Amino acid sequence: MIKDERFTMQYQTRRGFLASAAGLALAAAAQARPADARRMPNVLLITSDEQRKDSMGVYNPGFAHTPNLNRIAADGVVFNRAYTPHPTCTPARASMLTGQYASRHGAYTIGTTTPEDCLKLTSLLSAAGYRTCAVGKMHFQQVSTAGRFESPPRIYDERFWREFDGPYYGFEWTRLLNSHTSEEQAWAMRYWIWLKDRGLRESEINKYFREQTGTWSLPRQLHQSVFIADHAIEVIERHRRDDRPFFLWASFTDPHPPYVAPPPYDDMYDPSKVQYLGVRKGEFDNKPPIYRQLYEDGVQGLSFNDDFGVPCAEPAHPEQEKKWRKFTATHHGMVNLMDEEIGRILAALRDSGLYENTLIIFTADHGDYLGNHGFYEKGFPAFEEVYNLPFVVKNPGQANAGKTSQAVVSSLDIAATVLDFAGLPIPTEMQGISQRAVFEGRARQARESFLIENRAVQKGFYQKMLVTDTHKLVAYMDESYGELYDLAHDPHQYSNLWDSPRQQPLKRQLLAELCGQSGADTRKLANASPQELLSIMNEQMRSEEPVQERTSFS
Q1: Is 0.90 topped by the overall pTM?
Q2: Is residue 456 part of a domain?
Q3: Which of 79, 127, 140, 225 is the most exposed place for a label (fewest CB within 10 A)?
């Protein structure tokens, strides 16, 4: 167990535990365990942090250079319509772990914690015989709340991190790091042990970790992506001597800002050729008023700004175009470096003979606006740059290889899909669904729509979206305004159809679907008007309160 009383699990009695949803799911997983665990596929989940989709070659051919991710795509399936269920780190990652929306698992924004007794994919896999391993950034808890496991002072305790392997949120073995690139606390946790063992002196920390952008003087061999690849390879090589299948989450911290990379990755792309939409004149005229407030006044102009600041986008004005083109070029370079390290992991899989029987999923927690529409970073607003994810899958046996899919997929579905591949039951408490038939090409799509939740702060703002194969609807708690876009014909969301008389039947249909997926009584939805549906939705949103206290920005 973790040697920290602040992280001690709140164990239930055996009777209470078995009566809980998580306990019943664990019991079912243990009973479903195949007699020959060697037939169960290994699972390699690779995630990046705040990666925009067009930084991958399969989505931006001829410009983005990611040959190793392209190889996964060549052996598998590229998804064009994959989305995050939440536009910030902690809730998105917790949803991958639990298969649940934040309104159920509880970690609704950064600065909150994923409950330790939540339903966990990792625990279900362990009960069925898998070895579960985590390498890199997890961010299941606050990283800047004093006393939390992923926060100071624990992250600087060298003796603790030399000894700590796990368990952690169902992972039996871990090698964790904290924060991103050149951030001031990014050198901590197990990453510091690795850096020190490779000759970095404590006196050099401030030289490399002081929020630099652009060119990073940190030697490439000491980069976080190398740390993550090294330990992922360690898991794979150790598995050669283990009959148990493995579930490995390799969680890269790039290309999350600060936008910085060592040479030559800092100067690999021409800033004049990256995608930069800027902001159109009048772009916010048909948007909810908070768009213009955020663009003109920043987070400080939002009425729901709290003591820690709203985790949402920041303004990126047109006069800063040169800066944002350069940062976007660096973003691409950061992905290039990460891609090379992913190549090392894939080579280790092939060399070990495990590649064939491994399910590989690559995706991101969310994206980054990078100056498009006048914003940078993540969260609110509701443009595709943050919500539409890179998502590439290689099936065991390379089934359905070399295909591209337009099926709508949510990273919420990862947990249920992995359980399906493992031959394990999917708990009814999971809100994600299995995409296995879609992955393998046996079905065109597994769902017609899905939700995205964004409760950025504890009080005052809650945004829900419904995404279909052609449209996106955005609704706000206690507000009459909203957004409706035809993504098939308006992918950059310039034309808001919310108030269009011709689109009211579609708006009513999508609002009813949003309410139904949010848990509203479907008997109330059939004949309800748009205004009545908004009232039902508001009632449903309020029923999800109270939420846990937010204790820091992140």
Answers
A1: yes
A2: no
A3: 127
